[in-house]
UniProtKB/TrEMBL annotation:
Taxonomic classification: Bacteria, Bacillati, Bacillota, Clostridia, Eubacteriales
UniProt KW Membrane keyword: yes
InterPro entries: Toastrack_DUF4097
Record-given protein name: DUF4097 domain-containing protein
Keywords: Membrane, Transmembrane, Transmembrane helix
Amino acid sequence: MRKVGTLTASVGLIFLGVWMVVNKNNPEIGAMVFKFWPAIFVVLGIEVLIAANKKDNKVVNRINYWVIPVIILFLIVNVFIFAKNKITSIAHISFPEITNSIDISDSFSSNKYDVINATKSLEKYGDKIDLNLKNGDIEIKKSTDDKIKIDANVYVKQNSGIDEYEIIEQKKSEGYCIDFNQHYVKKVKATIYIPNGYDIKVDSTNINFKLEDSELTANVFIDGTNGDVKLDGDISNVKIDMTNANVQIKNSTCKDVDVDLTNGDVSIKTNDDNVKINVDTTVGICFLNGSKYKSVNKKIGDGEGKIRVDITNGVVNIKTQE
């Protein structure tokens, strides 16, 4: 008695074992290798042809039923990989579209709104400025005279009776607090000049935030729902807690960088070579210095600095000095 399928089952199990080893070390190569799994049907077909061509009436050809669970196993793994790729692609959201949908773009200059220019100059007090607003487009720059200056365009509903807007500051223990949350204010687009070493904290529903001044040393803290954050400069302490966001950070050192998102993309590029990195993703991927991971817990150098990213859906890309 000759059993057809023995060779196929053996080759299939060997292939599956090799794939598991490769996939564990490099998921991208593993996914590429697994695409060739249907070749086991070719092996099975060859076995059938060889058995059929052997003219030996005394030998009965029978199927080796082990080949059936092997094929089913391959089908299950194939379905799993397909579903995983689908979920990852869904999780990779294009957040510029989200940003455009939350009315923080220049569409506020339409006929529905009046734009009121408001400015404020403040003497340096404390070491922090705290901004509260619903919809904001904020750019931070270094002050040239050690004062805090605000140049803002405030968007209000047309025919609201509001012709002027006064920026009112409150002195807190750590510095200034400025509130733009009046009911008639729909959006604030502002350039804010702060002294070197000053901290900036923003609490906003929808926010475009940009600090790209290589001469400015600052710490940034943002709490919001939707937004786009771009940081480039001497910014070693960052705390961002948002729901949907694109976050781009470029700095020289990372004392404490903490990003917590539900959906989004995070890009961190630092010249720091002594940093401890911890990345947790639920449905997403992380790239660290070109290598792909599901999650990361790694120390580079002596791990003096900290980078922590916690994201549910999205892509994290971190580049450090190695």
